[in-house]
Amino acid sequence: MPTLIEDTIAAISTPLGKSGLGVIRLSGRDSRRIVLSFFSTPRNRLPDRVPVLGNLVEPSTRDVLDQAVVTCFEAPRSFTREDVVEISCHGSPVILKTALGLALAAGARLASPGEFTLRAFLRGRIDLVQAEAIRDLIEAQTLYQAKVAQQQLSGSLSRKVTPAKQTLVELIALLEAGIDFADDDVSVLSEAEIRTRINSVEAGLLPLQSTFAFGKIVNAGLTIALVGRPNVGKSSVFNRLLREERAIVTEFPGTTRDLVAETTQVEGIPVRLVDTAGIRAARDPVEQLGVDRSVEALADADQVLFVVDGSQPWTRLDAEVQTRLEGRTHLFVINKIDLEQQLDEKSLDIRSKAVCRVSARTGEGIEYLRRALFMEYGQLEGYEGLVTNVRHERLIQQALNALEMSRNSLKSSMPHEVILLDLHSALKGLSALTGETTVEDVLGTIFSTFCIGK
Ligand SMILES: Nc1nc2c(ncn2[C@@H]2O[C@H](COP(=O)(O)OP(=O)(O)O)[C@@H](O)[C@H]2O)c(=O)[nH]1
Ligand SMILES: [Mg+2]
Predict the structure, then answer these.
(1) Do domains 135-211+386-435 and 223-377 have the same CATH topology?
(2) Which of 28-32, 124-128, 312-316 is the most confident on average?
(3) Cα separation of 441 and 454, whole Å?
(4) Which of 15, 103, 104, 306 supports an S-S bond with 10, CB 3.0-4.6 Å?
(5) CA–centroid distance, residue 248 to ligand 1 (Å)
(6) Which residue of 226, 227, 229, 231 sits with most ligand 1 atoms within 8 Å of its CB, as the best mutation to test the pocket?
(7) HSE, side-chain direction, 13 A CA sphere, residue 148
């Protein structure tokens, strides 16, 4: 990970393939000079923020390669706060590669993955949370993910952390002043006052931390397995959730013998749905393999839909499946509500679990089921302050743990020096979040997950 930011970097910023347009981007103090060495335009200059039409010319032969529009964004009003030049030409891989080669020949260095964003970060244009949001935005698979990333890019998470951090910094400053001037007349904070302030920092962080249960699945998605005894309609519910006839449905028990998995999105969250073979003592070895796989899928799933047939009484087989679900989060799906209901719901071990009544045949209740899939993760209104990133969650947790320790030290009447150690550790977590104190190898790990040209 190069941290030298004196040189000028260049990269093709659009995917390499045939396309209408392709963009090459340069950043650094020599960007203009480098581009003007192979871009010819009548006045031979690139004014700030004015797109200029001209020709890409091979300097040695004077051959025109392509017509291009070039825009210069003068420092500091650019993405990286350096001079940035964007060359927009036809999206021909040959032209793009040749033009990039000319830029490199004229003194640019090929950018490493994420280096444009890294520069924006190093020059203070964005913080680390925002830099990561750029990557998440580019990699979003659903519109919902993109909107969450956009919020973080606009600084929503950083803004939510700032007040807690400020309170913490104030508290640290006051305690340090108390130590430095212990013999003077500086009033030292009372224990109650210190506790109030620690609590207030914590109160600012806890709501963020609690969004992670949901935030995590926004980014990483969920694996959901449908289980139940044969013929209750697992495959039918699976198809309904997918909105396509993917799994084979028949009236014969034991039809689904292998796992059928499909990735889809439900309410903007990536979901991997796994339809399984009905769990029962199998009639033949092939079915047995299917049942074994069902049990494995059950172990791997984040969420389980336990499908039962509402038109039939509770059976021993249902009870067997239920025992396998002990200690697992799962949702009851009572299927076939279009038929006369025979299921005595008292036999279900429902307790606090959600129950969805659906008919895979008519589609009734399916929309409710879709929303219920995420119920236990705490569905959120809007996207503000959503923690979606494991790194962020760990750092907020680190800060919360340190605050807890400082409170304990306070309770056992430790000297303020000890309390300060905990508070500093909390502050370190919060500073690393936005990147003020992030060590270099962490930066390397984060930015190397970007693609080149970003
Ligand atoms: N009436 C009715 N029949 C259903 C419903 N869901 C599934 N079935 C029927 O139940 C049988 C078994 O369905 P299937 O999805 O293969 O069950 P699986 O073995 O649990 O995967 C098929 O004949 C389906 O048409 C439903 O909601 N209502
Ligand atoms: Mg099936």
Answers:
(1) no
(2) 28-32
(3) 19
(4) 103
(5) 10
(6) 231
(7) 27
CATH superfamily of 135-211+386-435: tRNA modification GTPase MnmE domain 2 (1.20.120.430)
278 lines ligand 1 (CB under 6 A): yes
3-state secondary structure of 25: strand
**Torsional sign, CA 68, 71, 72, 76:** negative
Q: Which ligand is nearest to the CA of 253?
A: 1
pLDDT of 379 > 70? The answer is no
Mean pLDDT of 281-290: 81
d(C-alpha 215, C-alpha 211), whole Å = 6
Ligand nearest to the CA of 258: 2
Q: Rounded to the nearest whole angstrom, what is the distance from the C-alpha of residue 390 to the centroid of ligand 1?
A: 40
Can you tell me which atom of ligand 1 is nearest the CA of 359? 27
- Closest residue by Cα to atom 11, ligand 1, is 251
Q: Which residue matches tokens 């904070």?
A: 189
Let me know how long the chain is: 454
Contact between 112 and 1 under an 8 Å Cβ cutoff? The reply is yes
pLDDT for res 423: 94
Domain boundaries, the chain: 9-127, 135-211+386-435, 223-377
- Answer whether residue 265 shows pLDDT above 80: yes
Q: What percent of the chain has pLDDT over 70?
A: 93
Region 9-127: CATH code: 3.30.1360.120
Amino acid 1: pLDDT? 46
Q: Decide: 249 in ligand 1 pocket, CB within 6 A.
A: yes
Say yes or no: CB of residue 130 within 6 Å of ligand 1: no
Residue 239 Cβ inside 6 Å of ligand 1? The answer reads: no
**Architecture of the 223-377 domain:** 3-Layer(aba) Sandwich (3.40)
Distance 391 CA to ligand 2 centre (A): 39
Q: Which two tokens stand for residue 262?
A: 């499909």
In the numeric block, which tokens belong to residue 183? 């013999």
Whether 453 lines ligand 1, by a CB cut-off of 6 Å, is: no
- Chain mean position to CA 364: 32
Q: Whose CA is nearest to atom 19 of ligand 1?
A: 231
pTM recorded for the entire structure:
0.79
